[in-house]
Amino acid sequence: MEVQASRPKKFRAVDPELSLDTIFERKKAEIEREMAVLKASIEEAKQALKAVPNQKRKDEIFWTTAITESEIKKICCFYLWRSKKNQFASFPLSSESQLFSTCFRK
Fold it and tell me: pTM for the complete prediction?
């Protein structure tokens, strides 16, 4: 849409292909600006991380844990159940306990 700055304002339709190309170019320029800001932020973070003393490279350190995948699922399910517990207040107790037992099945 082309607008003529006059009193009263006048409007005129433009070629749809031209309009779509213009929208594309504006969006592309906006994204390129956002990418430049992101790249600058990443470079700044890299410089800040270089200042942190590093005893070993990340590929030389492994952490071990005694927790298994099924235990992780149980813990996550428990916290999900606990956070949603108030939603089950209108359901009979059997629905709540059924959900709980489903989460903690082996």
Answer: 0.42
